[in-house]
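protien #1 (seq + structre)
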Amino acid sequence: MNSLREMFIYGIGIFVLKGLGFIMMPIVTRMLTQVDYGELNFLVSIASMVSLFLTLGLGDILFRFASGQVKEDNEAVMRQCFRLSLLCAATFLCLALPLSSLIMSWLPVSLGLFDLQLLLISLSLSSLLTVPYCYFRMTHRAVPFMVFSIAQGGLQTLLSIGLLLSGYGVTGMMLSSAISSSAVAIAVLIYFRSHLQGTRAQFSLEHYRYIAFIVCSGIFVYCLNGAENWLVVIHLGKQQLAIFFAAGQFGLMISVAFEPFRMWWYARRFQVHEIDPEQGAKYAVLGVQIGMLLAGSMLFFAPILMDIMLPESYRESISLIPWMCLIMALRFHSELLNIGCFLKQSARWASVIDGACAVHLVTVGYWAIGEYGITGLLAIMVLTVLIRGILFYVISQRLVYLPYCKSYLLTSWGIFMILLTVNMSKITGYRVIEFILLAINVLLLLYFYRDLWRGLQFSTWRRYISH
């Protein structure tokens, strides 16, 4: 029950922090031209790439090496992680701002220099939140995470709307991000300051090797989840990037909707595995099935949401939604059925798999988008995430075998593929068929995991809701 309550609280925080960006789409797409919207999203792609270097995989380090029974040891690891985070952010800011003009010359499209500088400031400050936020999750303190997430998301949204209405365009969006990141970073550090006082753990070569492999894996994952934006803007320009990115936002919302489970599970999956590997395997499969249900739900709701949220000039994006949903459904397998690759050999195999798949996507995707346009790129993206999921599953099982329930996964895939076929064929009454398939999927999940719900009492639910 506490786990459900934590996921509910995380859901509120994540919805405000990330979901408001989705809600802002009707405003942003109408107040910016497609070229400006493409430029904004290219800046977001740069932010995603740079954040990998700034965070150094310290959240993964915290979950992996601060999961022991001794609280003082866990806090010492946390302090050392924060020290590294602070050092990296300060170094980055001192180097990146003076060199921002040089960085501009390396980019494939033109951007505003001040916009890029605001982005760099926002990134350096946001990176300082990584360790406190992960520590909140690790110590089951979901409420502070929710409060600060709401503060950051709400402040950034209000500032963005005000600056857009004042005519500041892309610069206004970057300025709102920098101001909200600064304010929340200061507030979190003031609140968290007592935890930062005390002894720090001394990291060994094993810790730094783990950091190196996690960072490398993160860079490769960015190539899998963000490099496609660079390929689109290089070959097709900012306007097509705007259309592609608008469709990608619906895929992102699947990830945001899944985030409460991800945040709850990633903070304790190593602990659960050490205590009860079978239970860990069960939760991992449950996560994959929930993710696939969310991807199927987006297939159903996306056309309705697009009619409400996007102007007519973005209607081309709707044909890309089935691709995005299929990619997300495949991505959940490689995210969750991979614990052996992170437990053994300092996460070396995670870097190897992600590196090989990243090279495949960038090289073959570059050719495919040139020959077949966005459809060719999407086909290569599907093939890449499929290969990645298979490699993670097979190698992880060889390193650490877990009794995953394959029949559950096959059931979810059967329903999802029928749903995808019905959605793309647009047969008579397809909306009703989609709804029935989603209802069947929900009922099957409730039946498969009925042991998780048996202990719940309505009085307990009412008590938590009232709190």
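ok now protien #2
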Amino acid sequence: MTESGTDNGERHITIGVITDPVAMPVLLGRQLAQDLPRVLSEHVDSSREWSVQTREERLPPSDSRHTAMMELAATEMGERGWDIAVCITDLPMRVGKQAIMGDVNNGRRVVVVSLPAFGAVRLQRRVLAVVAQLIADVYRPGTPEEGTEQHARRRLPVLNRRFQRQTPDQDGVDSRIASRWGSPQLLLGMVRANRPWRLVWGLTGPLVGAFAFSAFYLLNSTVWEMATTLSSWRMILTVIGALAVMTGWLVVYHHLWEPVRERPRGEREEAVLFNASTVLTLGTGVAFMYIGLCLVNLTASLVLLPSELLQSYVTGSVGVSTYLLITLLVTSAATVAGAIGSGFESEDSVRNAAFSLRERERREAFREKHEQRQRAAESSGESSRG
């Protein structure tokens, strides 16, 4: 393909978008099919007729050159007659501490986009801009040196200045867009991909336990008295402590923490990223669970506890704040007690509720790699002793 048109001289250019068969990549693929032709016509070449076809396909994990994804995309291009292929995956891509949003191989005419590096908000606009820029880099021949005037001219107006557009010195990658925020934004994107709100209905044991203890605490006059006498900072610490206990219990009891020190130096950063993602995902999920339980308990307290009854146990007048304080203390106590209910959940069920399918696959591969290395080291030690 050249800037003057496709290899066969046709004015029509077809973009094939291959997405992982999970919620967010599929949604973004459909959005690209609607918006990408307009953006490419406005900012790349208005003389061409651009169209987008989407396909859901399990994108394989790849090396730093995305070899497996590139090969799959090249096969799809040949079978379906696409001019350019775009792979959209939930698998994080990193080079050192740099979070990669997208890479392109001009020879293969394939773009690979990794969603976690985009963070947790405004994904549709950001992905559209990055994909359009990388397609423009494929469409226009040659790869200008980074920092040159030609390199700057080729930057599309839709691409946010916070995104770093680079020409990496790496085989198989001709152009790259990376996040200036690096690991923090990648971490937020990994948490978003895990969809932590699913934890609310994914873990029935803790939820049932928390509801059961809520009923007990809500009808306990001692709890009413404590709630109205605790200072504000004590109540805040109580809420934070309840969330921390539930999150910590899930991580420790179900062995979700990845050991860091025993890993090779090159894998330690990835293990730290896994652990941070685990804590944030579970913490966010537990917070959603807490809010839902809090709303249920507030409704129950308004129905079951008349102000005349509470007035005989608490000092001062009974108002809305009284019910809120009782609800917060009841929910916090029930959350801590509900952590016991997570013991009835299997480790697999907790992982299924906490992590996306691709994240579970990646963690399992990471763990298997470590175990294989340990077995190899043990075998080598036994051979040397023999």
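The first helix runs from residue 23 to 43.
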